[in-house]
Amino acid sequence: MSSYFTMWLGRMYTRFVLDSKYVKPENLKFYKITQGAYLFGLVGHFGAIFMFYGLGVPEMVWFNACLSVPAFTFAFLLNRRGKHSLGFLFAFLELLFHQVATTYFTGWGFGAHYWLIYLAALSFFNTEWKLGTHLILLAIVLAAYVLIFLNFQTGIYAFDIQTQRGSTLNNATTVLIVLSLLIYYYASSAWQAEQKLMAEKALTTKMLKRIEGLFGQQVSEEIALQMIESEQEIESRAYDATIMFLDIRDFTVFADTKAPSEIAKFQNIVFGNLIEIIQSHQGVVLQLLGDGLMAVFGAPTEDPKHPEHAYQASLAILGRIEGLIKNGDIPQIKIGIGLNSGNIIAGNLGNDLRKAYSLTGKNVIIAARIESLNKRYQSQFLISKSVYQHLNSDKTNIQSLGDVHFKRYRAACGDLPGGVVVNRTKRLNIY
């Protein structure tokens, strides 16, 4: 029976005290605490009517009946309507005037002034008020405290020592309990907020690392970091860079004779080593093409030594592939690498649904064409003159193949009179 009554009482308290459609989610906690305080104050001041009646202080009977109880009722109702600050102000002013009036009639020894200490702490409770408002309220409370201490040591009504001591003890202990609960609320809220913040920070850091890792696997760590850290869209812009195209020879024949698991293992070994080498030479892998890749040196991070870095990365790749074959990690394969340096356009291309960091420009096309020439010359590594001219390495082992004609190279509009797009032959010096 008692448990049923407790449950019913809890439901009634929630329905008529806590529930309100006018309260915003961010004010819900403040609302619930103040509603409980207003209800407590309403009941307490209603009981004070009978207390002061028994003590023979009719002025305070009328004060509580005509001012205190209505003030806390208004505060309670205003709070339910979402007028939190106005309701809080009603309760604050009532408590201020109530303690001044009580001390005036009963004297300092009655102990009503202890509630002004509670009120001083309460002046900082409303988070919607600015600091200046809190300080003004605190100054008013302090002024009232000094005023009643100096002028109301003896009240209008005199009480015996036992009544004064009992009242003082009751007021002091009640204020101590309420202040302790208030401090506990603030300390608990601060601790919970700190724990929540730390948990959210840890989760955010974990998610960012996860996103950075997944994103970096798709576009490269450099581009991923630039996109994550940049507050603006990565715009396309011109770079002086070196483009690398790499192709695994006869990969289709190899893939047709192997199980999917073997193909995946082969690709992971090869591309894992290639990516490591390219990144260690300040390059960025833009695309993995299944049987090859495209990389760039000098974008999105500018690098004045991009031809040299691309050249050294290519030599390292050839050495690594040879080592993997000798160790039996991969079967006997041949690769083709083509390098070309020059101006390119690099940046985000696409729409809001999908974007990719890409390279455009004739020098990108030329790099792809150079790589394809490895089949004609039965070679594994070819570079253009634009790369050769910027190398600081020993060039004694580099052999010139002379001018090479690229057929069906499409010229851009404006290259020829009248701006007509035509097919023409491109002459390029290859090494």
Q: How many domains?
A: 2
The CATH superfamily of the largest domain turns out to be Nucleotide cyclase, GGDEF domain
Structural class designation: alpha+beta
CATH topology of the largest domain: Alpha-Beta Plaits
Q: Quote the beta fraction.
A: 15-25%
> Could you say which overall geometry the principal axes of the C-alpha atoms support?
rod-shaped
Quaternary organization: single chain
Number of strands: 8
For the largest beta-sheet, the strand count, sense and barrel status come to: 6 strands, mixed
Low-confidence stretches: 410-427
Please, could you describe this protein's structure?
- The structure is a single chain.
- The chain is α+β, with helices and mostly antiparallel strands and 431 residues long.
- It has 2 domains: 9-198, no CATH class; 239-430, Nucleotide cyclase, GGDEF domain (Alpha-Beta Plaits, 2-Layer Sandwich).
- Helix content is 60%, strand content 15%.
- The protein is built from 13 helices and 8 strands.
- The chain has helices at 2-18, 28-55, 58-80, 84-106, 114-122, 131-151, 161-219, 221-229, 251-256, 260-280, 306-326, 362-377, 385-388, and strands at residues 237-248, 283-288, 292-297, 335-350, 355-360, 381-383, 402-410, 423-430.
- The strands form 2 sheets. Strands 1, 2, 3, 4, 5 and 6 form a 6-stranded mixed beta sheet that branches.
